[in-house]
Amino acid sequence: MSITKENNVRYSDRYWADPKYRAWKLEYGRNYQRKLRELARNNPNEPKAQRLIEYRRKYQRERIHKDKEEAEKIFGKKCFLCGYSAGRIELHNIDGQKHPSNNYRRAIENKDKFVALCSLCHRMITQMSRVLNISWSQVLELKHDKVKQ
Fold first, then answer.
1. Reduced 3-state DSSP string for the chain
2. Measured between alpha carbons, how far apart are the two ends of the chain, in Å?
3. Are 89 and 63 in contact (CB under 8 A)?
4. Dist CA 32 CA 44 (whole Å)
5. How many CB atoms lie within 10 A of CB 122?
6. Distance separating alpha carbons of residues 53 and 49, to the nearest angstrom
7. What does pLDDT average to over the chain?
8. How many whole angstroms separate alpha carbon 3 and alpha carbon 116?
9. Which residues sit opposite 118 in a β-bridge?
10. Whole-angstrom distance, CA of residue 56 vs CA of residue 96
11. How far apart are CA 70 and CA 74, in angstroms?
């Protein structure tokens, strides 16, 4: 990055101030990423593709691990319905919308729309909502009725 004589402004800074140059540079970066993804898809044994694939796997693993730890702090490691605390806890969307199993980030951002369940309760609730059209409020009523008995 060379410095010009005019006002000691860097040559590259002057170009970044130009919106056309910024738009071109962003589009160039997007096209480069698109080409790398195509290369990884079509020829995964290529060294460049291998580096990209390894980087993405590592980044995704780290991000998912951090998000999972944060979600466990927020929701706890105990099933909301049965209280089971050993094993894997799954996050259930109360709205009934489908969501990816590893999308802890969405659960962290929308704490009031998710609840922690064990895998057995999660399967049961999902099937009940699909087959019997039972909403989350009805599930809570069933839980409270069982606690009263």
1. CCECCCCCCEHHHHHHCCHHHHHHHHHHHHHHHHHHHHHHHHCCCCHHHHHHHHHHHHHHHHHHHHHHHHHHHHHCCCCCCCCCCCCCEEEEECCCCCCCCCCHHHHHHCHHHEEEEEHHHHHHHHHHHHHCCCCHHHHHHHHHHHHHC
2. 75
3. no
4. 16
5. 20
6. 6
7. 79
8. 57
9. 89
10. 30
11. 6
Tokens of 90: 């799954």
Instruction: Dump pLDDT digits (tens) for 11-55.
Output: 556 666 778 887 888 888 888 888 888 888 888 888 888 888 888
The one-letter amino acid code at 79 reads: C
111, pLDDT greater than 60: yes
pTM metric for this prediction: 0.56
